[in-house]
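Predicting structure from sequence has reshaped protein science. With that in mind, we have picked out one protein's residues alongside their backbone shape tokens:
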Amino acid sequence: MQMLLLLKLKKVFPSAGTLKTIQNKSKQKDFYKEHNLPTSDYINYDDLNTIINDYNDGKIQLPAVWKSAKFGYDGKGVKIINNFDDIKNLPNVECLIEDKVNIKKEISVIVARNQQNQETCFPVVEMEFNDASNLVEYVMCPADISKDIEEEAYEIAIKTAQNFNSVGLLAVELFITNNNEILINEVAPRPHNSGHHTIECCFTSQFDQHIRSILNLPLGNTGIKTPGIMVNLVGQNKTEGDVIYSNIEKIFSMSGVYTHLYGKKKSRLNRKMGHITIVNKNIEEAIKIGKEIKELVKVTA
């Protein structure tokens, strides 16, 4: 007797095709170009020798930004190249080199879409990065930008999500140049570091919204309840060891301060270990407190 195997297909979000594009930064940049989405100029490469030849032929202008096409995350797989020695020391991997744009601000928009193509955006946030690690240190909500820039950022983010036919969340990281041009840096199809503040700051958190989106439920209100700043907690110890959160007990009694530790037992340099969100009706006061906490709380081993 032959056995009939019945397969019940399940929908998966994001789709395999979307993941294939987003997981490769070269393909991701090609996607933006093909769909007339604004991004910085770039060249894709398969090996280091071609990069060296293009530099010698004057096709690469320095300074520029090198990005590994695959396996880059949290500032890894990204280098600023200023001279030929920097080029010679690059890994021999599939990659891209893009123009180093003059950045005035870095912002992010998280778009939520469900299967009925209902869509909404969380408020635009402003991000500050650590120059050494290239990791986000602060996420501020709302961003300190003009109404025109805000509306353009929403338009670009929604258009990006629509072109990906995204279901769930899509975090769209954007550069604002010195000329007020908005360029897409990269995207992430999931709850994102630039949206952790929504737990306290917004009527609907990014995690609740993600579940609503993929289950095709009505999308929640993304409005701001209270402005705030998120402070990333990252490992500062060069050698991996058992994590110590120095001075963290000093913030537990502070009003409007919410601590989220990720339960990781081992700390190492630049490993994300948690975050702290500070809410305040006055965003400037929230930022002041957040930066004081960043100096106070140390993650070591």
The chain has two domains: 16-99, 103-300. The longest strand covers residues 103-113. The radius of gyration is 21 Å.
